[in-house]
Amino acid sequence: MFITFEGIDGCGKSTHTKLLSDFLNQKGYKTLILREPGGTDFSEKIREILLTSDFNLNPEIELLLFEAARSHLTQNVIQKELESGTAVISDRYFDSTTAYQGYGRGINIDLIKICNYLATKGIKPDITFYLDLEIEEALSRSKDRILDNIEKSGNNFFEKVVEGYKKIADEEPERVIIINANGTIEETYNQIIAHINKKFFSNTSSNNNEK
Ligand code: Z5A
Questions:
Q1: Which pTM value belongs to this model?
Q2: Which of 13, 84, 130, 184 has its CA 20 to 30 A from that of 194?
């Protein structure tokens, strides 16, 4: 089982990644929480370069670094954990690159798709939750933080990213579920769990749903 969370920063991905992991643990699953970029020593080093260094990277370098981090994480962690039956839950995966470097920075979407395929070897999440939140609300939820390099890109950039996410969801409605994340944590959680139950547990009785 491979589940990813997407959305602009501050939309609640980290919060719901943890809550979903707890839910799946209760169902008997071993879970692994990951974040992108990151998740291996190599990918965490790339994360530092991307988010906090002052190299002033152009969009193409940004794209290639995100994909290098993803390739290392996929090959060394995700692939193996999925094969061993772990439920992998990732805070971001390749849809972030399509939304941010593709729709946000303006790199050709077909090129992005090829790079995503190279880095993931075609591995796709079973389900992706796009946490849809007003940009102003996302900013206010994360207002006390120091902005990283991508967060400094401004509202116009984030509007394009949000539009991009909606196009991604339109293209793959079976996989990418839009969740209204403007409500309370509990309201958002309930929507997510309803989709998880429908997708993974609809044919199992409450006594027979352990992995
Ligand atoms: N990026 C990219 O450009 N291309 C790529 O391919 C990839 C990434 C993979 C990673 O940043 C940056 O890299 C990101 C995209 C780019 N930059 N931007 N912009 P990151 O990993 O450091 O951070 P993030 O992923 O953008 O988000 P975040 O800061 O970790 O936020 P979050 O996980 O979405 O939200 P949260 O931490 O769960 O919640 C934020 C706060 O809101 C927190 O205090 C919660 O308690 C609160 N919260 C959560 N839900 C609610 C509700 N419902 N009501 C009220 N308050 C709430």
A1: 0.95
A2: 84
Average pLDDT value over all residues in the chain: 94
Residue 162: the pLDDT is: 97
Give SS3 for 131: strand
Ligand 1 centroid vs 51 CA: distance in angstroms?
13
Domains delineated in the chain: 2-210 (3.40.50.300)
- Is the beta carbon of 47 within 6 A of some atom in ligand 1? no
Q: Is the pLDDT of residue 50 over 80?
A: yes
Q: What is the pLDDT of residue 208?
A: 42
* Structure tokens that stand for 188 in this block: 């958002």
Q: Is 188 in the pocket of ligand 1 (CB under 6 A)?
A: yes
Residues 6+ away with beta carbon under 8 Å from 21: 31, 33, 87, 89
Q: Tell me, what DSSP letter sits at residue 202?
A: T
- Residue 204 banded pLDDT, cuts 50, 70, 90: low
Contacts for 51 with CB less than 8 Å, ≥ 6 apart? 37, 148, 149, 150
What's the gap in Å between 149 CA and the centre of ligand 1? 14
Decide: 104 and 153 in contact? Cβ < 8 Å.
yes
DSSP assignment of 133-195, as one string?
Answer: --HHHHHHHTTTSPP-TTGGG-HHHHHHHHHHHHHHHHH-TTTEEEEE-SS-HHHHHHHHHHH
